[in-house]
Amino acid sequence: MNFTHPKDQTIKDFGEQWLHYTDSHGFYGSMELFFDIIYPFLKPGDIKNCKVAEIGSGTGRIVNMLLEAGAKHVIAIEPSEAFEVLSFNIPEPKKVTCLKITGDQLPAYENLDYVFSIGVLHHIPDPKPVVEAAFKALRPGGHFVIWLYGKEGNSLYLGLISPMRILTKHLPHFMLYFLAEIIYWPLVLYIKVCHILPLPLKGYMLSVLEKMSPEKRRLIIYDQLNPSYAKYYTRQEAERLLIDGKFENVRIHHRHGYSWTVIGTKPI
Ligand SMILES: C[S@@+](CC[C@H](N)C(=O)[O-])C[C@H]1O[C@@H](n2cnc3c(N)ncnc32)[C@H](O)[C@@H]1O
Questions:
Q1: Which of 12, 114, 123 most suits a substitution to test ligand 1, by most atoms within 8 Å of the C-beta?
Q2: Nearest to 117 by CA among 149, 79, 144, 82
Q3: For residue 1, what pLDDT band results from cuts at 50, 70 and 90?
Q4: d(Cα 141, Cα 35) in Å, to the nearest integer?
Q5: Whether pLDDT at 119 is above 50
């Protein structure tokens, strides 16, 4: 019997996804979106001259935002086949070290100012070893910044997507691609109606998704349907990840009412 662990299957799913969606142009890869993700805890200027790591870099979208924010050096961790795309997409290779490893294997540098993990931990069935590795890689006083799917604010969406995902996470690329194309049109309509009615996810639709190009909106639909493992975190679970990982001064923000930006500091 061919049984692949959900952790490995998810990495495989993303490898295939990113080989087809290699580009991060437009709002999707912009500093405006980066600011939106790290708000209200950081400003891009806080990263200037810092040594940072990103766990789960995909095609390098966040790595490039970190470089644009002035990071001195970025360690980019990506375990999937997307590693090739990541290495290709880095404009300043001298400032970036790409490692094809999983997050729990991040070396214990003990000197990084920040570790970021944006949209990744909710795809890892057991994220605890990754949080521990981030802790060891940071200098005392360094910060771990994560962004996760939220449970609160997503109940209607989860009612729709969860039954669909039972099937879609098993579909091959070409079927997911066409499904994303079909779902794209009702999504465009939904975004338009959000301008007039207070529909669920209105904040996200108008502040984020509407600013994406049609191609990136299709990628986001695909990204929701594809990975084998995706967990939607409650506020308490999201905070616990960092508190249990020995981080202090853990702060959490309900980003656009549907997701969590969380920051914690390694004690001095
Ligand atoms: C949704 S993508 C996010 C990519 C990037 N952070 C961004 O926002 O554009 C999640 C990424 O996490 C990676 N990933 C999955 N499991 C991982 C693990 N155990 N350790 C590190 N990265 C992992 C996937 O391969 C994928 O590229």
A1: 123
A2: 144
A3: very low
A4: 22
A5: yes
